[in-house]
Design goal:
Layout (H helix, E strand, L loop, with lengths): L1 H30 L17 H20 L6 H4 L4 H22 L5 H21 L12 H18 L8 H41 L12 E4 L5 H13 L8 E4 L7 E7 L2 E6 L25 E3 L3 E8 L4 E8 L8 E7 L2 E4 L8 E4 L6
Parallel strand pairs: 1-2, 1-8
Antiparallel strand pairs: 3-4, 3-10, 4-7, 5-6, 6-7, 8-9
Length: about 375
């Protein structure tokens, strides 16, 4: 007992410098005001501990499924209806590998046992920070160091004893499943994902770089995208123009709506217009919740002040705002304002209607 206590204290001593750096980082992080607030996707463990703890188990299980069973945990975002399936699948994967390790443990090399004793807890603990974000296989860099070791030990041990000790049909089938999926699925998935992302990247870059923005004036302009055709255009268009195309950056870039519905713009004054969602609402989609969680809903009368733009919520439904007013600090025809809309499968310069007139905005990239 004394020896174990001494070893434990030695481990604590070795971890103290790294632990102190983590504590200092977290204190500075909060003291300087960094962190997310009221997001439905990213959760600040220090700012919203209850929200983090309530979401962490399901997200962690989805990530475990992605790590151990090699399916895309990203489906958590793309297909929200799949979330229970991803969580249950991750739990089954955890139970499966616990069972496989338990039945092989006594025959494992002592050095392997000793390594797994710290790698497995370390891998599980490293899952906790990334559960603050939506599950995605790209978050598994650190946890997969342990996950890959576990999979490797299970497959290597089973393969090396095939001719020495026969497994039950069930155990043999499970090990074949683990071996085949671990060896074949990752490289195939890598090629497919790379092809899909490359194709999307080429198309998106061409679209963003060909946006009707005057590079000679844009440094002194605020670019306002009236209704984004998709979340990526809303977030990445300006970044891609700057990074990939070397284009000058505007003073600011705003996307006023990401709602995937037809919308109507009504101009109500020299520097003001209203945006109404037809047949839907804002902040109802999964990507829109990156910016606002349903736990902190906007209500009529709420006002948000941005850089020279005042946003007033005029009407809401049970999910989110349906009509919003935008008031600018200058006339809408001012050359320092550049309005864009999605038309003819591209970002085109928008000519706003006269006072009292209406302009229809399309709901998707196909318009």
């Amino acid at each position: 007992m004394r020896r174990q206590t001494h070893e434990f204290l030695e481990h604590v001593k070795w971890l103290t410098p790294a632990g102190a750096l983590v504590v200092l980082y977290l204190l500075g992080y909060k003291a300087l005001g960094y962190g997310v607030h009221h997001s439905g996707c990213y959760i600040d463990p220090m700012g919203e501990p209850l929200g983090f703890l309530s979401n962490a188990p399901g997200r962690a299980l989805a990530l475990l499924g992605g790590m151990l069973l090699h399916w895309p945990a990203d489906l958590w975002v793309v297909l929200p209806a799949m979330r229970p399936v991803l969580a249950v699948g991750g739990a089954l994967g955890l139970v499966l590998f616990a069972w496989l390790l338990r039945r092989q443990w006594r025959e494992c090399d002592p050095l392997v046992q000793r390594a797994l004793v710290w790698m497995i807890p370390g891998g599980l603990v490293s899952l906790l920070p990334v559960t603050a974000a939506l599950p995605s296989n790209r978050l598994l860099l650190l946890p997969s160091l342990a996950g890959s070791a576990v999979i490797g030990v299970v497959v290597q041990h089973w393969w090396s004893r095939r001719g020495v000790k026969k497994d039950s049909r069930g155990g043999n089938a499970v090990c074949w499943f683990v071996a085949v999926t671990s060896l074949l699925l990752p490289p195939v998935a890598w090629q497919i994902q790379t092809a899909v992302i490359t194709n999307f990247d080429d198309t998106a870059c061409a679209t963003y770089l060909n946006a009707e923005i005057d590079d000679a004036q844009v440094r002194n302009q605020r670019v306002i995208l009236l209704a984004a055709p998709d979340p990526y255009t809303a977030v990445y268009a300006e970044i891609v123009r700057s990074v990939e195309g070397g284009r000058p950056r505007p003073k600011s870039f705003f996307s006023l709506s990401m709602a995937p519905y037809p919308q109507r713009l009504l101009r109500t004054g020299p520097n003001r217009f209203e945006l109404e969602v037809l047949g839907g609402e804002m902040l109802g989609g999964e990507f829109e919740r990156f910016f606002r969680t349903a736990a902190f809903p906007l209500k009529p009368g709420d006002r948000v002040d941005l850089c020279g733009i005042t946003v007033d919520v005029l009407a809401v439904n049970a999910t989110g705002p349906t009509r919003v007013a935008f008031t600018f600090d200058r006339p809408l025809e001012d050359p320092t304002l550049c309005f864009l809309m999605w038309r003819d499968k591209g970002l085109r310069k928008a000519t706003l209607p006269g006072i009292g007139q209406v302009m229809e905005l399309g709901p998707s990239p196909s318009t």
